[in-house]
Amino acid sequence: MKKKVFIPSQPESFGTENLEYKIINLAVKNGQYVVHNQLLFEVETNNVILEVVSENNGQLESLLVTTEQVVQPGDLAAVINTESSPSFAFLLKIFLFNRVFMSGFIIGSIITSLLWWLF
């Protein structure tokens, strides 16, 4: 199943007149596997910075926004395919990442760092 991610609107308590919504940070790339509550991108308005997170696990099928792009609330920003499974490299990265924090081995930390940046 494909889930759509939309640009959120700013809370009404901050006001809603003459707002410009701009993408300021992309935390993921097309094709990347994302997990629930993982940061996808940040949207800046005149008053606040809104963090947009994934509501599902799945592969980021298409990221439709770019850094510095001006967007409107409700615009389609991304599509996540929830039926895809994570790659072996992703699972290995998560496994080693968890092992390092549980055991504290320096070698494991080095390997995890290398794998994190390679994949």
What gyration radius follows from the Cα positions, in whole Å? 17 Å
Major sheet size, sense and barrel closure: 4 strands, antiparallel
Overall residue-averaged pLDDT value: 81
Shape designation: elongated
Kindly estimate the percentage of residues that lie in beta strands according to DSSP.
25-35%
Class of secondary structure makeup? alpha+beta
Given as residue ranges, the uncertain stretches (5+ residues, pLDDT < 50) are none
Our measurement of the CA-to-CA distance between the termini, rounded to an integer number of angstroms, reads 25 Å
State the helicity in percent bands: 10-25%
Quaternary form: single chain
Write down how many β-strands occur, each being a DSSP E stretch of 2 or more residues: 8
How many helical stretches? Answer: 2
Strand order of the largest sheet: 1-8-6-3
Can you give a write-up of this model?
The chain is α+β, with helices and mostly antiparallel strands. The protein is 24% helix and 32% strand. The protein has two helices and eight strands. A four-stranded antiparallel β-sheet has the order 1-8-6-3, with no helix packed on it. The chain has a four-stranded antiparallel β-sheet with strand order 5-4-2-7, with no helix packed on it. Strand 4 and strand 5 form a beta hairpin. The longest helix is centred in the last third of the chain and has 16 residues.
Quick description:
By secondary structure, the protein is of the alpha+beta class.
How do the strands and helices of this protein lay out in sequence?
Layout: E1 2-6, E2 21-26, E3 33-34, E4 39-44, E5 49-53, E6 58-63, E7 70-71, E8 76-81, H1 88-103, H2 106-118
Antiparallel strand pairs: 1-8, 2-4, 2-7, 3-6, 4-5, 6-8
Helix pairs in contact: 1-2
